[in-house]
Design a protein that fits this description.
The model has no long low-confidence stretch (mean pLDDT 80). The chain has a single domain, classed as Alpha-Beta Complex (Protein-Tyrosine Phosphatase, Chain A). The chain is globular, with a radius of gyration of 14 Å. The protein has 105 residues and is an all-alpha fold. The two termini are 19 Å apart. Pfam families: DSPc (PF00782). Belongs to the protein-tyrosine phosphatase family. Non-receptor class dual specificity subfamily. Its EC number is 3.1.3.48. This is protein-tyrosine-phosphatase. It is an enzyme of class 3 (hydrolase).
Length: 105
């Protein structure tokens, strides 16, 4: 999933469906990575957020390792400005709260 596409879709008020064959490993990994980047949630918080909405997720160990690396890369690129509240960041956090629970495939 290209992050710019997802962001542009949300700006336009559209929804984006992220899917893979079973919805257990690949698509949850992409959604977790997206949340980490665009809402500044930690990997653990992003995982818990997705797991609460689709209980069967279970990213494979390789993907989990990549998420750990992704979190480290995001932290390495963080600046002081990233830690200050901004309108865009607050909007994205509000959007995350609006996602309905219990989406069933």
């Amino acid at each position: 999933m290209h992050y710019a596409f997802r962001y542009e879709a949300r700006q336009a008020g559209a929804r984006v469906l992220v899917h893979c064959q079973a919805g257990v490993s690949r698509s949850p990994t992409i959604v977790i990575a997206y949340l980490m980047k665009h809402t500044r949630m930690t990997m653990v918080d992003s995982y818990k957020y997705v797991k609460a909405r689709r209980i069967i997720i279970s990213p494979n160990l390789n993907f989990m390792g990549q998420l750990v690396e992704w979190e480290a890369a995001l932290q390495a690129n963080k600046t002081e400005a990233d830690c200050k509240p901004c309108h865009e960041c607050q909007w994205q956090r509000q959007e995350v709260k609006k996602v309905p629970n219990g989406c069933q495939a």
